[in-house]
Amino acid sequence: MNAQTFIAEAPELVAFADLYLSPLNPRRLVPEASVTALAQNIRDLGLIQNLAGLRDATGRVGIVAGGRRLRALALLQDDPRFHVLPVRLAPDEATAAVWASSENHQREQPHPADEVREYGALAARGVDLPAIAIAFGVTERHVQRRLALAGLPEPVLQALREDVLSLGQAAAFTISDDEAVTLDVLARVRGHAYGEAQIKRMLKPDSVRGSDRRAVFVGRDAYLAAGGRIGGDLFADEDLFDSPDVLDRVFEAKLRAEAEALRVAQGWRWAAISLEDYVPYAEIERLAAGRVYPVPGELTEEEQERHDELAELANADMLDEDGLAVLDALSALAEGDYTPEQKAHAGVLVHVDRTGERRATPGLVRPEDRVGAEEAGVLAPSSHRPSPGATAPAAKPSLSATLREDLRRIARGARQNALLETPDLLLDLLAFQIGGRMGFHRALGVKADTVETQPSTGTGYVLDARLTTPPDGPKDPFRLDLAKAFRAYRKQGPEAVRADLTRALASLVDVEDEALGQLLDKEARTAIRAVWTPTAENFFGRVSGATLDELWRHLLDLAPEHPTATTFARLKKREKAERLEHLFADPRAVRGVTEAQATRIAKWLPEGLA
């Protein structure tokens, strides 16, 4: 049988009633939605590609190529146009079998860049999105995303077509509305393994994601009403707030307004705000000279017994949601509320947490209100009040000098770890320093000294092996033929040389200037928690018990009077450290920890690293 045998004669017109799906057709399972979409396409545009089949002994025709079209045509028999159809007939069963196999296996998906251009051309001619989706048998969402790519500058699409960019990398460019910036970033990423997130940061380094706490708190509508610009990230289904100055201004204004509304509604003497996502006790102590607490309520003997029983179960992580609700209600009753007299001398500090929720720290007495609060009997007199004109003693550092140095080394190691993935940045930094542009400052330890990144305890701290494993050296460094060794080294190729240079430069990074360090961290995406996890040995056992109590409450959103907080506070310091180590090892394995709390734990850093 030669190739000419497989060429069909001119198509014959066959009544649809005489057509059926041949057993030779390999595509037996076809999604119903696909058939429905194709039927609509044929109804709108006609049957573009004919069916192919084999006539059997009864005169009917079994379709061997075009099974999906046959199923779609079955849905169109209300239209007289499709009662009789053109079919190419095979001369024999062997030819029909080859046709069936060939059509099934020769289908080739178009390159994404070609698909993007084709969709874009149709849209430019006025074809709407649903019609394009029907014509190609794809979803409208698929077409919408391809059309977003169609708006990219031609050099980006060409880079996609040449496989210089992946589809995901090309999609990252859709967030930019500045062609000059787009082309500049394209030139920088060509030939390098930049991730999609890195490209987006290069295109819009100042944009704030819609999931940011400020954006969540302010809301899209209020931000736009204030003149902010939105840049959509269609492929991430997320807004980008492109006017961070507007967002910050609206965020602060809304927070101040809500703080004042809270003051009026609850009757506090004053209200203040913090723009941070967490207010540590050190900040509260700096702001306020004292603090009042709710006047406890009274529980009946039966209620008190029930409260204690549920609290024990909660501490053992054995309480269900209904039980927790009962415990919360009893705890609230026992905790009581602030009296009008307390509120007349105290205020509330308001902030927005990392999830975008407003939080309030009530009952704070300012230094200027302390005397009045003491005279009114709502605040106990301080036995440590300094005499007039006396200088307040300096606060004792919460971290030891050794621990602070360890944390500095950890931060330095994390920065080096991140810079391993940005060799171009390292080379730029090297040129910046050795070109004399930094004066007496330095960013790289290019001298013979060693840049320390190993803390006094190595638990919970793992760097890339390239930073901790010495490079291969000569077997006999004293009798080495340097010229011969250098020729052999160069024969390894530029990639090997570049790898050695990257490792060496990364291990020498020791930036002194804080602003420059922050810039490097931003571009290299330094992530301290990627190389360091706090443990009882490397951190928790080296700070005070009060610091551990505060951290436990902060991570789990606990009031000081909450049973889980009071039970933790009664533990020995060693037990507290062990509990926190267990919590940080796998937050989601601890019963009762929410997703928001697990995220907070995963991102938490101590004072010396944050």
From TrEMBL:
Domain of life (superkingdom): Bacteria
Region spans: Disordered: 369-398
Residue span, ParB-like N-terminal domain: 12-105
Pfam families attached to this UniProt entry: ParB_N
Gene3D superfamilies the UniProt entry points to: 1.10.10.2830, 3.90.1530.30
InterPro entries (UniProt xref): Chromosome_partition/occlusion (IPR050336), ParB/Sulfiredoxin_sf (IPR036086), ParB_N (IPR003115)
Protein name from the UniProt record: ParB/RepB/Spo0J family partition protein
